[in-house]
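Field reference: sequence -> structure
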Amino acid sequence: MAKARLLAPWVERERRSAVYHCVSRVIHRQMLLGDAEKEQFVKYMRMYEAFCGVRVLSFCVMTNHFHILLEVPPSMENELSDEALIARLSLLYSKEYVGQVAMRLRDLSESTTENGRKAHEELREKFTRRMWDLGSFMKTLKQRFTSWYNARHGRCGTLWEARYKSVLVENGEAARVMAAYIDLNPIRANMTKDPAKYRWCSYAEAVAGGDQGALARRGIARV
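Structure field:
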């Protein structure tokens, strides 16, 4: 029986963030992640980061596993407007589907009945329950990448060895040491002598510039 994921003891009791070091390995630790796969994984990671409202502080995608140092803030459901929710949905869903949800939310928000207000809250909760949550971010990221990988390579079944591992990381020095450990993975694996030249880690992304580089620099600055 799967054990419940260990979360920070203050989750749902205090309004402060928690930082986790997350690791997941390819089944049988096979070297299945080439350049194109790593590129796609990072793309999905950034997509779900924006949707879930979490923050990737540091990351590295290797050929048979990945590391993510993830900051999960407290729920901000009550601060997320319908417009902001629709903007996040547009990251994942088709224009037609998002338009339907937007219309439904608008109609329900104008309702003056108790049932209408309840339906509005339930529709929002259908999506917001997947936000600001470690498990939802990791599960959705891994499942989406698996679907992409299997379609690309004509395979089926699980891609990952087991459930991901997560360790709560204290803020400050521990987080900085962990971020450095993650970015130095390619060096320890003798894949490069300079992490800036390994494009699928946060350090290389930070120095590369552009929009993705800005995200990586903000994550490093947060650490």
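Note: The first helix runs from residue 35 to 52.
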